[in-house]
Structure formats: structure tokens, C-alpha cells
Amino acid sequence: xxxxxxxxxxxxxxxxxxxxxxxxxxxxxxxxxxxxxxxxxxxxxxxxxxxxxxxxxxxxxxxxxxxxxxxxxxxxxxxxxxxxxxx
Length: 87
What we know:
0% strand; globular; mainly alpha
């Protein structure tokens, strides 16, 4: 992965993290930096998962890959929120 790919993953991860947080109902008790971190991880894992499933390269927008990434971000934010609430 090149530097531009890493920068792109970070930018997309920020967007994915925010979208994952928006899909969850209610208020989350984690900060924006944790949301961004979860989003970046979800974007990278979602891209790998979409590639493994064979849906990463399509003509036009990669809707299925984005949905996978957003779902992973929502699960990650919910898990981290639950873990932080137990403290």
C-alpha cells in the first residue's frame, strides 16, 4: 500500500466512523478520536473483507464494500461504547 492509499484509507475511515456512529440509535459515550480510530480500522478490515468476498472492484461506486465498512464501524462503535460504559 502506498502513502496515497494510506491517506485515502484514513480519510475514508473518518467518514466511515462518523457514518457508523450515526447509524446507532441513542447517544454514544466515546469521543470523536475513538470514533475515527474505529472508522479507520473498519475501513481497512471492510476493504479486505470485500476483496475476499469478490465485491471490492465493481463498475461505479462500491456500495457493497461501503455497507460492509459502515456495518463494521457501527459494530465497533457499539462495542467500544459498551466497554467504556462498564468502566
